[in-house]
């Protein structure tokens, strides 16, 4: 996400856009020649730019506009067709401008400007914008074969010392492409999915076995118990032993409680 002010009349393009991009105008006007035709965007207007298409912009002096983009490894055909059927340009809801303002504030404070945070804000802008237009995500769409193969491998072999390159080879695509596909379809990364599987299994073993923290850590793919304890505390708010003690104490108190009188 970013923004710019054009002090003078300016031309940008032709350019080839690589991501899914939403362009919106706060002040002034811009003529856009893109996949959906030639359009005049004025204050409050927005237009969607598809990856792989060429665009030409002619900005009027004093134009202030912003944009938001998400990395798209690929777009399903039905999604592209749905976008093409919409009338462009459209109005950019005023409440979404607050999300843009938040993102700009995050970028100004570089110490907080994490890529993950900005990506989350960008996704929120797109999600809200499409919802306003009557388009909602399709949660039940099958995963692409490469993502499904990688996901199954991670969930079956999370305790092994598997590497991203090995997972990508199993899926039949490059590690970089697999990362983009995971972000698109699972809102995660292969590495984050792997560690999430390890943490979830560690919690299950804490809850259902008497294994030591050290043994659980090694069984779930951690190199040492300190890393395991740190991630468990991040997830649950307490170290593993304290979590187990609290859980077992609550279970014991529940069993010893007098029966409820109806």
**Name given to the CATH architecture of the largest domain:** Sandwich
Number of separate strands: 9
The CATH first-level class of the largest domain comes to Mainly Beta
Distance separating the two termini: 59 Å
Poorly predicted spans: none
> How would you name the CATH homologous superfamily of the largest domain?
Jelly Rolls
Which shape, going by the Cα principal axes?
Answer: elongated
Strand order within the widest sheet? 1-8-3-6-9
Total DSSP helices: 10
Helix content: 40-55%
Q: Give the mean pLDDT.
A: 82
Report the structural category: alpha+beta
Q: Give the C-alpha Rg.
A: 24 Å
The biggest beta sheet, please?
5 strands, antiparallel
Give the quaternary arrangement of the chains.
single chain
Number of domains: 2
Keywords: DNA-binding, Transcription, Transcription regulation
Protein name: AraC family transcriptional regulator
InterPro entries: Homeodomain-like_sf, HTH-like, HTH_AraC, HTH_AraC-typ_CS, Tscrpt_reg_AraC-type_HTH
GO molecular function: DNA-binding transcription factor activity; sequence-specific DNA binding
Any overview of this molecule?
By secondary structure, the chain is an alpha+beta fold. The protein folds into two domains: 2-132, Jelly Rolls (Sandwich); 145-250, Homeodomain-like (Arc Repressor Mutant, subunit A). The protein contains ten helices and nine strands. The protein has helices spanning 77-84, 94-108, 115-132, 145-157, 164-171, 175-186, 190-208, 213-219, 225-236, 240-256, and strands spanning 2-6, 10-16, 20-27, 29-34, 37-42, 45-49, 54-59, 63-70, 90-91. It has a five-stranded antiparallel β-sheet with strand order 1-8-3-6-9, with helices on one face. A four-stranded antiparallel β-sheet has the order 2-7-4-5, with no helix packed on it. Strand 4 (29-34) and strand 5 (37-42) form a beta hairpin. Helix 2 runs antiparallel to helix 3 (115-132). It starts with a strand and ends in a 6-residue tail after the last helix. InterPro entries: Homeodomain-like_sf, HTH-like, HTH_AraC, HTH_AraC-typ_CS, Tscrpt_reg_AraC-type_HTH. It comes from Rubellicoccus peritrichatus.
